[in-house]
## 1
Amino acid sequence: MQGVVATRTTLTTAIDSTAESPSQQAGTTSPASRGPNDPADLASLVRQLDELLGAAGAAEDAGARRAEAAAVSLASRGRELGLLRGFGCGRPVPKRIYTLEELRLNRIEAEKLLSPKDTSLNAVRNVSQAAAAAGLVAAAWLNHWDAGSVLAALFGGVFVFVTDQVANGGGGEALLVDSLGRLLRPSYAARVAYHEAGHLLVAYLVGLLPRAYTLSSLDAFLRYRALNVQAGTQFCDSEFTAEVAGGRLKASSLDRYTCVALAGVVTEYLRFGVAEGGLGDVQQLDGMFRALQFTQKKADGEVRWAVLNCASLLRRHARLHDELAAAMRQGRSVGQCVELIERRLEGCADI
């Protein structure tokens, strides 16, 4: 997951618990009357949405924020018109403190999703390192290298590795390992697609508009032309950023952020029995709780509720999740993903 602001540890922010969540606000009134500038139907709305999100991705700073705000405004208007029935309208579980036993009764083992270990890529990384070492030995033997040549090759490899870590945050290594992982472990690509589809689907249902996504390090490099950008899903989170900067974070914004951050690891747990990816999401969330000076009990309560809420949404819309992951692997735009979600929610009484 990308795009949701990472708060610094020096932040002190008040939590405003009076604001309603989008799911409480939406879906309780009849559709608004359509104005002359409103989209005529869902298809025209998602075309406009893609144009605005594309502009937000191409522009810089102020221009990006204006385009993002316009996209969020369009989505909110689409909800008022009844065109986007699902945006921010996912039915949440009751907000209260849940125990670990209650999570287990709902078939959730927290220890299998809140401490993700990327065993798939770690195995690929180990194989690639062993292959590189074997290649060096073979080259030295076939070319009759002396000790000086072997040391020069070793120091050259170490220099490239350290330079990548310093200049690109390990982006070059991530690109190599991610690409090899897709070749050596076909299931890895499916896991990533489900993970990011979980982020996108939960975000949409809790009222955070997705802005863009990439499913591989190569996709991210080709889109952003930078090695230090990880693959993931980005969101229109300017409002959240402004709340954090202003020192007053709404309780509904905190709930939304927590659900979106945990949606990927919950997805992997539900689909594969254990979470491998998403360590960065969990660490970012932990950092925000520390910045907000949450006690451990308060942070645990927020996390357990969000885990249960994500699991409820993803189980309820499991078939839609399947289709969304497939659409994202095909490279569908965010607008097309929104259209897919809305088409599948037509006639759904329990969003």
Note: The longest helix spans residues 119-142.
## 2
Amino acid sequence: MEDKPEIQVPRVKLGKQGLEVSKLGFGCAGLSGLLNAPLSHEEGCSIIKDSFYKGITFFDTADVYGHNHDNEFMIGKALKQLPREKIQLATKFGITILDDGQPAVKGTPEYVRKCCEASLKRLDVDYIDLYYQHRVDIFVPIEDTMGELKKLVEEGKIKYIGLSEASVDTIKRAHAIHPITALQIEYSLWTREIEDYIIPLCRELGIGIVAYSPLGHGFFGGKAVAESLPKESILATHPKFVGENLDKNKLIYARFSNLAEKYACTPPQLALAWLLHQGDDVVPIPEFAIMRIDNHTTSKQNPCRSTRTNESSLDLSVSAYKDNFQPRPDPIRQHQPVQS
């Protein structure tokens, strides 16, 4: 089995505990539906392998993704065809589906351990590199949840601990029990609220930022603008993608698309380049459902390189928004997409 990636994506440290990942990760949720029709395991495994050979080694899933945990089963199959020691695998616990189909959040110590054991079995691995609490259970002290996660680290079942969509207070309290390696949270050109308090705190504590929905749920890839939404997509009812809000957001997309064209790259490349430029502690995890990996990486030498000769899209993003958006220093914030 050929196990050397064809493209060398830069590698960065997440947190201060030693986890090293590819600068661009892969959000696997879309392989099992949600934003589109679910793929077969054969198709999903092929895409995961293709992503690995394009330099992506950081793969993100969760026990709630897909019907009957389909996503973890799919990732487990793909891992059997790849060198496990070169993969950084992240999964999550904490969201459960009730009998009436409604989601609920659960973070009791017993549930933490039950979920971890089940994920290890579905993924068919001996350990999980990064294990997140998917959502914080406000009825269970975070200290109790973290205490059980700490035990799982000591037992070697997980290597690093992460949180997802946690508040400043929760992050501080959790980090006091055991070092948090990464915070997964939505971050993109149209979701920047975390810049005020969350990112400064994470940098103070040495916690990495894993940015999900880095293309604005596909907005910067043209979803609902340049192409229609899949009928299976939950975005069909998302406030940013319907009615008057969508009409106004289309104007923003048109301007952004023109800007990308000026710099000889695609809109998703420019959006990702901006995010990649926010620091080595920020790792985007775009989903397959949003855009194929080929549209994010345009060069076998550098996944952050644009079609313009000898110029990285990281540099392009900086010069583009400095030249075209006012006022500084947060030139794109004034053009936030419309959401009621």
Note: Residues 11-238+266-304 form a domain with the TIM Barrel fold (CATH 3.20.20.100).
## 3
Amino acid sequence: MKNKLGPSLEALRQLNNVSIHQLITGIMSSSTYYRFTHDGTDISAVKFIQLLDRLDSSLTDFINLHSPEDITNQQFFTTYLHSVSTGKINERSLQTLLLLLQKVNNDRPTPRYLHYIWLTQSCLDHARKQPYHFQQDLNRYFTSITTWTSSSLIMLGLSAPFIPFLSLSSMFSTVCEAFDAHLDRFDVQKAYSYFLVNFALLTILNQSQFAFIRVSKLFLKHKFLDSTLTMSVYVRLINLLNVWLNHPETFSASQLRPLANVLRDFNEPVYADQLNEFSQLFEHNFLTDHPSVLRHPLYQVF
């Protein structure tokens, strides 16, 4: 089946009276754009989000133009990431996506739509500081998988913050082997980054030294994990904490403090604030004689 995203994006471009040259410069070639909009060729979620941003269009605008007869994996992952990029969750866009998913699932119930609903609602719950309605459903789904596909791995990468830490720990080795077998796809590489960074942060928050050592070794193995600014800062954080764990005599809390400023300088205020809060809590909890409770400021990284 041909990809239907391209024609809808082209309609949105014409609606916004933006030239093709203005839209694609620095993102893709004109031939790639033509194949995407006319021949049904896929492009990466990152490039699609860049095109949407350049059109200054909301998720609602795109959904209104795109036929809701079916929602493909690429459509869901692209629109979901567009709603949670840079750490600032767009509740309105997520709510629109959730309503669309519920409508499509009511018309043609499938497990895939249910999984999308569980993830989208979990992210909304997180933004609203509410209990996760579908945490156990997500947990049962992922722990029951025997054959991992690219789509299920991407889904796991996005769902990692909403799955109980013990479950993630128990499936960690199996999942990493599955990711390694699918790394020829860029979107799987990105999902692997989400999974490993969030899992590493959860090991810190759950004070699991064994699990942290396991995941930190993979950051040395895979160089693609720091492919974005945000990821590179968090990889730096994890590497510094690895130094603290293995060579505490060479570690200083002052090494953590500049990381938040790096994110702030590159217009990532949400991540900067949570990283600054984490650094303060970590220093007070582990590096002083009067520890406090380490809460969950680092819970979701995209």
Note: The chain is about 65% helix and 0% strand.
## 4
Amino acid sequence: MLERAVAMIDADTRATVVSSRLDDQPGYLRIVYRRADDTRLYGFRADALGVHRQPENRRVPAVGAIAEDIAAAVGMTRSGNGKSARPIRDGGVLWWGDGYPHDRNAPVADPDDTAGFGALTAGDARAWSQWHAGGLTPVTDTAAADWLTRSAFAAGRAAGNPATVRLSNPDDPDDFDGFAGLPDAVLAAVTAALSRATTTPAACWYAVQEGTPVTRSDHAGTFAFYATAGAPAPPSPPSALPTMFLDGPRATIGVGHCKYVLFAGPAGAAPNMGWSPTPTSFCRQWPDLTWPDDRAWLAEYETYDNVLDITGPVSLIEALSSIPGVDAERVR
């Protein structure tokens, strides 16, 4: 299929293929190409086997028909039939089509640069290393959040989770630090209970809303003015996110169509989410939304009240309610 599509594109004078390969995610392929009327690189990613289609629309056309559709899309317009194209990395490829390349577990350029990415900068390499050290990985494919089309808890109830509990910090009545400010041992007990309540504890998703400190480069060094009088201000740390995530991609979640950066990691990694206002400090920022791959539960952090709402099976809600050191209020 890929070879046939490439041959068709090469036969079209409007575009020239630079590279082509199967994506790291099964069922997907990607083609990097140049337009005859544009010097920039474009990338087209296709869900060739219908991996993310709805079940009722999952009939796979013949190979020749898929190849023809891909070739026609690439040759149609600069970004393919008017669809938006955004750079996945500074100076890199403008991707469009079915999401971004799925490099979740290998955020490094391949030796032959077959994806057209170019080499990682020192800042990006540092950012990837820091996230991986905490067990979290920002991801380019946001399809895991597609089921959250309504409000978080409407989605949680639709997934069959019957009960909800609200967790808060009993030693923080003013909600300054809130749930995220609980002792590490208490937070570990909470995430351990969540881990036991899913069949996929090693595969969970974390969504952080766009515009919060974790997702913005201009928050670096915000607290530099706390330096001792007369002392030089500490250097601003680099952005927390690799360059490719400063502009996109984003998951669109809920009725308000809010934009989120999506992370993958185990259930116990939530306390490691945060940002560094100075090179030697760390501010925990609890993820706005967390859920395991099997959707056995759903957690939503209420930023204004600094509380964590969790919807899930009754057994999980009871386990969370019995953890010492955290206030638990049954909501439903």
Note: Confidence is low (pLDDT under 50) at residues 51-58, 77-83, 103-118, 218-226.
